[in-house]
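User: what does the whole thing look like in 3D?
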Amino acid sequence: MLDAFEIVPNLPVLVVTVPLIGGVLTIVMGRGKGPWAWATLITGLVFYFTVLLMQQVLAAKTGTISYELGNWPRQWGIEYRVDALNAFILLTVAGVGFVTTLYAQKSVEKEIPQDRHNFFYAVWILAICGLLGITVTGDAFNVYVLLEISSLTVYALIAMGKDMNRQALTASLRYLILGSVGASFILLGIGYLMMVTGTLNMEDMHDRLAALPDAVHNRTVLVAFAFLLVGLGMKMALFPLHMWLPKAYTYAPSAVSALLSATATKVGIYMAFRFLFTIFGVGFSFVAMPANVVLSVAACTGILVTGVTAVRQTNLKRMLAYSSVGQLGYIVAGFSLANVNGVAGSVVHIFNHAVMKGGMFMAAGAIMYRLGRCDLRAVRGLGKRMPLTMAAFVAGGLGLVGFPLTAGFISKWYLVQGALEAPHMWPVAAVVLVGSLLAVAYTWRVVEAAYFQEPEGDSALVTEAPLSMVLPMWILIGASVYFGVSATFTGDISMRAAKSLLGGAP
Amino acid sequence: MTGALGIYNYWIYVLLMMIGLYGVIAKPNLIKQAIALGLFQTGIFLYYISMAVVDGGTAPVWTTILDGAQKYEGPYDNPLPHVLILTAIVVSVSVLAVALALIINIKRAYGTIEYDEIEAMDQADKRADYQRGQVTDAADDVEHRQEGHHHA
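Assistant: Here's the predicted 3D structure for the full assembly of 658 residues, as structure tokens:
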């Protein structure tokens, strides 16, 4: 049946076009449950497509699928290119997108006025579309366009939190300004690269950069590299360019925080992979240029500073937001090691952090749903009142700590191994361990409040969140435990992705 | 023209970008920030368009000269950056539209579009929450000190 519609050969482009058209159509889906049901259908379909795409990539002999849009050869047209790395990221984004859509129904009903639900789900689907598009494309300018599609919709999604707290508006505007400056830097970087190479296709860019006689001393290439590094740092919230993130995640609607923490910055990191590894190549980025030093110092400082800040927070969502910046630090520190274990740890942590932090933001959102706030005082005694939600939060927290048998342990295992293998990089391993202790501290504050203190006020009367919120939460947390016990699939894919990124280098 | 003056559009592009960046960082008025952002992005358009110029080139359109027999065979300017920048202009207009929509909402919610006044009102909200016993954070001060530094 699938072949009748020629779905399988066109999968790479369907992943983008289906949510693009579906997102716009959401607006006419009425005011009741229609928009949500439609969003579930579209994101579910896209998730199914990414699963098929993953199977296709695993079956492909070269491990890469190339799809030329409108059959234009890649020199002139846009090429979509899927290998182990972006098939894995696509699967993560679409999977988490689907599960958060399931979760969103109740949360959005509570937090956003009924007459805006169709617009909410329209931008929701378009945001997922943009993120998937960035991941699937092999064309540098296409990355910029899709980046702006996802950014603009994300600004709107964050601002939708204005009915809960007006600070959502200022958070969104600030993200808009910093995000646009970051995206403009990326656009400039792409422009300088095009000036040197005369192409926008990533593979061609790489080949022509490699053919340049003296790329390391070519001013234009250096300027491109600098602009891209700063722009990408802004988009992936690398410390100290993360200033927009805590406020945005705190005041966005709960479902949006869950979606963003799991996908938006991850796709930023994916872009960094493509630009630093695929286009410039390891030899340029990490050997000739000191990107590894710059990135690992920024990431390690970020892990420590945001860890300490997270410990001091009393609002659960803000605590998780700071923790996210720290966790992104692990991912960046991992790939800046530029060896197989480091990069593999980085790739696998993109997935692991997405499911853990997505699940934890969902738990915080469930508390918001019941109590209208989620500070530490509201959490007091909830261990008995909302056992499933709090258990999910704690299981996610153990994952952040890197407790054995959780997914976080797998990532940190790779990262520490990678740090010890790389010359003079042992401090990264030390920072990973200290960061884990900080994660123990902030998770413990929640555990203490939830299980060892008596509830007060509303918290004493509250009941467990509805099943349609608890179930998606546990799907993500369950995934984080499952892939912590049996990491064969995620580990193998990450290893494969890491080896192809490093291009056969040891 | 040769030398540094010969590439004067690049100097203008850098100048526009720097003015924009300064405005985004230094102006507390949100509308001025939006204008500065527009200026910043316009600088980038100029950069892309300048990049397309080919010595002695003209618009990449096939023109038939008078008797219809002869065709101008180039050199042509590179049309690709022009096309790219058409897209980027659309993007920048959308960004500006979203920014203005947000600013209108901010004006409705706060009654002002001066960033420092908004900041002061948020602080007052926080103190009120604290007195009602909703929030217990001393820690947010840390964030605000960082924010203050960032916007200084």
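In plain terms: The mean pLDDT of chain A is 88. Residues 84 and 493 of chain A are 6 Å apart (CA to CA).
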